[in-house]
Write a structure and sequence with these properties.
The protein is an alpha+beta fold. It has helices at about 10-20, 45-50; strands at about 20-30, 35-40, 60-65, 70-75, 90-100. Strands 2-1-5-3-4 form a 5-stranded mixed beta sheet, with helices on one face. The protein is globular, with a radius of gyration of 17 Å. The chain starts with 9 loop residues before the first helix and ends with a strand. The relative contact order is 0.23. This is Axis inhibition protein.
Length: about 100
């Protein structure tokens, strides 16, 4: 029984990937207190983000990020499920707006 299976490495890769996560802070416009949670993925796409949302519904998603052009902080809308979410100071800062 050789326990030093450094050759396979497949299981090691899974363990390493499990340590990767993104901190998400979500504000729903009709609630005062934001949600904060970790998603075991990085970078985060809109599709993954929506799977972890505490509420499901028809929403528009805005993400806080620095705008290089304006040299200021903006809320950038992301609509495409495959798009990578903008980060702000190492976190995903989201505002979720209900579509009436």
């Amino acid at each position: 029984g050789s326990k030093s299976s450094s050759g396979s490495g497949a299981s090691d890769a899974v363990v390493a990937a499990a340590g990767v996560h993104t901190v998400v802070v979500v504000s729903f416009l009709d609630e005062h207190v934001p949600y904060r949670f970790k998603v075991p993925a990085a970078p985060l796409t809109l599709k993954i983000f929506k799977e972890y949302l505490p509420r499901k519904g028809n929403y528009r998603y805005f993400f806080k990020t620095n705008c290089a052009d304006l040299d200021t902080v903006i809320q950038e809308e992301v609509c495409n499920d495959n798009d990578t979410l903008p980060m702000f100071e190492g976190k995903v800062m989201a505002r979720v707006k209900s579509i009436e």
